[in-house]
Structure formats: structure tokens, C-alpha cells
Amino acid sequence: MINIQGITKSFGNLQVLKGIDLHIGKGEIVSIVGPSGAGKTTLLQIIGTLDRPDSGSVTVDGINVSGLSTNKLSDFRNRHIGFVFQFHQLLPEFTALENIMIPAFIAGKGRSEAKARAEELLQFLGLADRANHKPNELSGGEKQRVAVARALVNEPAVILADEPSGSLDTKNKAELHQLFFDLRDKFGQTFVIVTHDEQLAAITDRTIHMKDGLLMPESTITSPNDPTTTTV
Length: 232
Fold this sequence. Notes:
232 residues; alpha/beta; Rossmann fold; 6-stranded mixed β-sheet; 4-stranded antiparallel β-sheet
């Protein structure tokens, strides 16, 4: 699902990524961990086509995105990748249902199709009764689940999450973490999650350790899609 070869990235004189090779299979839930400044978020942004590497190639869902134009990248991102951030970033003037529908409108879907998909997701996430509530009427956990639904509305192949449970209490964290696995089982998405949460990292299919812009060689995997254990 994701294939990265030789990725480097610098900001001025600071080299943030120093040659990353990484393969992530379809349906995997992968966590990326490491100290602040290790390059985790930069790597996630490059996978999500929010930033371009200085060198190397990135293939997502069978498409080499490295050479796509800005407009084509934007279209690819909206159709193939969903994003979940630490803070929900819901638009306060719209209801939960409307927030979820927005990416579908951007992708060119009609109102009835977008509404049906958003309602399906709200039902699956246990939020059907909150569809017409605005963000200030929702709890923190409900807001983050709406954000997850928004990320899923266009049925992307990949979900990228940056500290998705960082602003939640213990109960809502556990519920969100379980939700990722429930969604993978129902919809088959691949999840890549940057996190400092050790409990979340411990339950993912694979934990990738980063330090100083490099992947640590001791990272291993036991994937449900590949029962063998492999060194990154």
C-alpha cells in the first residue's frame, strides 16, 4: 500500500530525514514512535503528499506520487488519503453531518451520495443521534470520532493520524484506539499513526522506531497479513 525508497528531507541546513526505506502493506495498522525531532511528522506529511521529499520516491495505493503536479497531488490526496490530527479541526459553524460531508463535496460527489455516506459512518461510530449537533455541543471523544468519520468519507485507502488521541482522556483514548481496528476490519484501510502513546503503539501491528531522521533497525513486525517476523 505504501512504498518509500531513499527519502531525504532538509529544512535549510537541518536534515530531518536521512534516507528512509519503508514498506507498509495493505490493511496494516502501523505506529511510528520516537523522540521529538526524530522526523516522525515530516515522514507522515510526505506519505500524505502534504510535503515533497528532497530525494527518493513515494508510492501510495499503487501510484508514484513523487512526480505529480500540485493539482494532481491535491486530487489524489482527497481521494486516496484521510487525515486525523490531535485536535479535531472541525468547522464550528457546521453540524457533525455537514463536517463529514465536506471532503465528499470537494471530491465532486453529489449531496445525496455524500449525505448517505456520512450517515453510514455516523451510524457505525455510534453517533447517529449527534448528526445535527455542532462541535461545541459534542464531547471531546465525539469530536474526534466525527473527525475520523470525515477522514473516511471518501473511502480512502490510507488513514494517516498524527497524535490522534493526544487530547483525549483515558476512556476516550481506549475507545478511539479500538475504533481504528474496528474500521480496519470493516473497511480495510491502512493506518499509519504517529504517537507518543505507548499503549497505542503496543497494540498496533507494527511499531516503527525513529531517531535522528532514521528508522531504527531493531523495529520488528508480526502482521496479521504476514505471520512472519521481519526487521524494518
